[in-house]
Amino acid sequence: MSTKRSGETVRWLDTDEERAWRALRRMMIAIQSRTAADLAAIGLSDPDYEVLSTLSERPGHSATLRDQAAKMGWSRSRLSRHATRMEERGLVRREPDPDDGRGCFLVLTEHGLRTLEDAAPAHLESVRRHVIDRLSREDLAALEAIARKLEEPA
Asked: For residue 65, how many other CB atoms are within 10 A of its CB?
């Protein structure tokens, strides 16, 4: 069904589309809230874990603030504020970016790496419990295919 509103045509969701959309939203919220609660139980937030894990995979365990923000889908200012809190806990440090006088690198500290190594088994168990072990190999393949389609810009 389509209707005109303020000169634009609005394409409303049909019953099947709306049911699928609502199921996807409920699934994303449920998985995120459950895995975030499990991380909180070991003293990390979901964004903390994302910063630590992505930095651990990079050469030199560092990334520019700009690149890290883009990877997380955050603004630079939001990541900067979060990085300040992580710095206070000794998980990351900032270093000047010689190619960008206004930019900086986020660097994973030894304490940050140990924290990640300590948290990883619990996080992986959480991911298994809430997602992986509940799906068949066929389900996982379908989920991956769907995720790849949806991660691309429209």
From this structure: 20
Task: Count Cα neighbours of 101 within 13 Å in the Cβ-side half-sphere.
Answer: 0
State residue 101's pLDDT score.
Answer: 77
Q: Which residues, listed in sequence order, are joined to residue 10 by a DSSP beta bridge?
A: 3
Whole-number Å distance between alpha carbons of 115 and 91: 8
Alpha helices in 1-152 (DSSP H): 15-40, 46-57, 65-72, 76-88, 110-130, 137-151
Closest alpha carbon to 100 in 74, 72, 65: 65
| pTM as predicted | 0.85
Distance from C-alpha of 78 to C-alpha of 151, rounded to nearest angstrom: 22
Joined tokens for residue 123: 């996080």
Residues 39-97 pLDDT 10s? 999 999 999 999 999 999 999 999 999 999 999 999 999 999 999 999 999 999 999 98
HSE at residue 113, side-chain half, CA atoms within 13 A, is 11
Between CA 142 and CA 126 the distance in angstroms is 21
